Amino acid sequence: MKRDFLTVMDLSFNELNGLLKRSIDLKKGIDANKCPLIGKSIGLLFEKASTRTRISFEVGIYQLGGQAIYMNPREIQIGRGETLHDTAKVMSRYLRGVIIRTFSHKTLEEFARYSSVPVINGLSDKHHPCQALADLMTILEKKGKLEGIKLAFVGDGNNVANSLIEASSITKIKMKIACPKGYEPVPDVLKRAKGYVEVLNDPFKAVENADVVYTDVWVSMGQEKEALKKKKKFKKYQINKEVLGQAKKDAIVLHCMPAHRGEEITDEVMDGPQSVVFDQAENRLHTQKALLEFLLS
To answer: 31-61, pLDDT tens digit by residue?
Structure first.
C-alpha cells in the first residue's frame, strides 16, 4: 500500500525514530553504497522557488541511484488547465514518487488522493514536514535526545512552526512559541499538541531557559503584499544577543533559511558559536534520503 508524507503526523513514533536513526547512519556513511532507487524516476513538481529543498532532494535521489525530474507547473499542461486529477494519474504511470512544493496544502492533498505512487510534501502553506525532520535530526545530534528538550520558536506561526509543533507532540519536546496576536499557528495543530506547546507574545519569556532557539522569516513567499505590515508587527521578535541571552548557555540556534539577516535574526547570532544553521541545512539531505528509502524502496 502506498504511503504519502504530507505532514509529520503521517509517521508513527517508531517510524519517526527509525527514520532519524537511519538519517544519522547515512550521514556517517553507514550502508552509503546502497542504491535502492536504481531504475526509478522521482518527479519534483514545484510551484514555488526553492534552494535547499530542490537541491537536497535532487542530490539525494541521485545518491540513492534514482533520477530526479524537475517540473515547473508553467511548463507542463497543468499550467494550461489540465486537472490535478488527470495530472496525478498520468504521472503515476511514469514516476515512482512525486515531491510537491505548492502554495496550497489542498492542492497537495488532492494530488495525493488521485496519485497511485507516494507523494511527499516539499512545502505547502500549512506544513513543511521535511524541514521538521532535519530539525529533529539536528537537535538529536547536538543534544543527544529529543524528549524533554525545551524549544523556543520566535516569529510567525507559519508552516514551519506547524510542523515543529506536530514533531514536538510526537517526540515530547516542550515547545514555546512567541508571536504577535493574530499570527499564531493554526488551531487544529495546536489542539493536537495540547500539553506540549505554549503560545506567548513575549519572546524573552519564550526563550527563557531554552535548549533550542528557532526562528524563520517574517514574510513567507506569497505574502509580499503584507511585508511592511508584518515587519512592523514582528520588530521585537528578532533573535539577537539580548534575546538569546535568556536561553541556556549551551543553547543552539536553528533557522530553516533563507535568512533575512537584520530582520528575524542578527548577523552576530547567525554566524555566532551557538548557531548550527548550516548543519541543519545539510541534514535536509540525510533525512530526505532516509525518507525516500522508507517510502519508495
So the answer is: 988 999 999 999 999 998 899 999 999 999 9
Mean pLDDT of 13-18: 98
Single out the catalytic residue among 96, 127, 130, 131.
131
- E strand segments, 36-84: 41-46, 67-71
Residue with cell 499538541: 193
| Residue from 105, 211, 216, 280 carrying the catalytic annotation | 216
Phi, psi (rounded to 5 degrees) for 265: -150, 145
The answer to whether the predicted template modeling score (pTM) of the entire model surpasses 0.90 is yes
For the question of residue 101 being annotated catalytic, the response is yes
Q: How far apart are the first and last CA of the chain?
A: 13
Structural domains of the chain, ranges and CATH numbers in brackets: 8-128+283-296 (3.40.50.1370), 131-280 (3.40.50.1370)
Q: Which of 54, 101, 127, 255 is an active site residue? A: 101
SS3 177: strand
- List phi, psi (to 5°) of 124: -135, 180
Q: Is 256 a catalytic residue?
A: yes
| Residue 39 φ/ψ region, left for φ over 0, alpha for ψ in the -120 to 50 degree band, beta for the rest | left
Q: From the candidates 54, 105, 128, 286, which is the catalytic residue?
A: 128
Q: Catalytic site residue 279?
A: no
| Whether residue 80 lies in the annotated active site | no
H or E segment and range at residue 76 = none
Q: What is the pLDDT of residues 154-167, one digit of tens each?
A: 999 999 999 999 99
Selected residue with higher pLDDT from 162 and 221: 162
Inform me whether the pLDDT recorded for 27 exceeds 80. yes
Omega of the bond prior to 258 within 30 degrees of 0, cis?
Answer: yes
Residue 125 a catalytic site member: no
Residue range 229-248, pLDDT digits in tens: 999 999 999 999 999 999 99
Catalytic residue among 105, 256, 280, 286: 256
216 belongs to the catalytic site: yes
